[in-house]
Amino acid sequence: MPVQSNPNKCISCGGCVSVCPANALELRGSDIVVDTERCIDCETCMKFCPVNALRKKQQEKGLIYPMENEE
Ligand code: SF4
Ligand code: SF4
Fold it and tell me: Which position has the higher pLDDT, 54 or 44?
């Protein structure tokens, strides 16, 4: 199941970018940009994130989504 990031929580540490085995994440300025074609849905980034800014999202399979302000 896909994942998305929460800009209100993300501290732009870049850690998720480093741990992603598929190189699907990129820190561009203070935003996490997701390459949805590369993401293999492994959830490594979710488990790593120190502030729990990444979470699953009910949408198409295999995607982690960039910043969406939901709060
Ligand atoms: S879920 Fe996707 S973006 Fe997150 S670490 Fe795995 S491949 Fe990378
Ligand atoms: S690991 Fe979490 S806090 Fe760090 S850049 Fe990624 S989403 Fe943001």
Answer: 44
